[in-house]
Amino acid sequence: MKQAEFDGRGSRIRWTETPGAEPARVYVHGLGAVSAVYHAHIAARPELAGRRSLFVDLPGHGASDRPQDFGYTLEDHADALAAVLDAAGLTGVELIAHSMGGSVALVLAHRRPELVSRLVLTEANLDPSPPSSAGSTWIDAYEEDDFVAGGHARVLEKAGPVWAATMRLADPRALHRSAAGLRRGSVPMMRAILEALPMERVYLQGELTGELEGRERLEVAGVRVLTVPGAGHNVMFENPDAFVAAVAGTG
Question: For the residues 84-108, what does the mean pLDDT come to?
Answer without folding.
Answer: 98
